[in-house]
Amino acid sequence: MSTTSEHRSRLPGVDGLWVFIGFDAVIFALLFASFQHDRYGDPALFEASRRTLNFHLAGLDTLLLLTSSWLVALAVQAVARDDPRAPRLLLGGMLTGAMFVVSKSVEYAEKLIDGITPATDALYGWYFLLTGVHLAHVLAGTGLLGYTWRRSRRGAYRDGNRVVLECVASFWHLVDLLWLVLFPLLYLQR
Amino acid sequence: MRLMRERATMVWLGLMTATCVSTWVLSRDALRPSVAMVGIFLLAAVKVRYVMLDFMELRWAPVRARLFFQLWIVVVIGLILGFWFAS
Hints:
Structural class of chain A: mainly alpha
Shape of chain A: elongated
Number of domains of chain A: 1
Number of helices of chain A: 6
Structural class of chain B: mainly alpha
Radius of gyration of chain B: 15 Å
Strand content of chain A: under 5%
Oligomer: heterodimer
Distance between the termini of chain B: 50 Å
Strand content of chain B: under 5%
Shape of chain B: flat
């Protein structure tokens, strides 16, 4: 277990990143509120279309992102302790992120084959917008995890030099927590 | 570093369990919609808080940062439930 003595009051990475994370979180909050406001106008239509969404697949996506976030959190701790398993943990985080991308691609393909597009109705307009913006975050985060994995294999984060890794990890956890709200908002609320 | 004994691992197990509960138990039609909604979104709030505090390491962040992000949870979940109960 970690001890509090290892952790002075500080934000991981650099302060500028946290301004970006806070800004991104506020943008998503506005999107969530706008979605809910639109749903408030016609809950029956939103509910009818929601029942055509694949919540089983989206539930598995949630488990994938949580696992990815966990592996990345462990990787940051491993680097801080010069544990040689850090590159493998980062690789696991990147691969689970990539699995999320594959799963979302399958879900989009299913919808498009069924003739469902963003123009189908209001729920699907929001579905493609919200999951699309989030997927762009996942793609960026997965790419950044790949970058940190390669650098960690070369020992770039030894000697306490882990600012870049902490920045990437913090962004990745943001991607995870945004999905934790987005998933029930779109797929589970009745 | 024993991975399975890390606090992050305990948190991850809790998050995975909570996700299974909200996805495959609370979403069932047998539950009253209001009970399901409150249960699902309160669980989501708790999950987000644990990700912030333990994965993002905000547990050891300056007070203002912790307040901002935890206020974000209250506002977002409050708005979602507020619109739902108003409709």
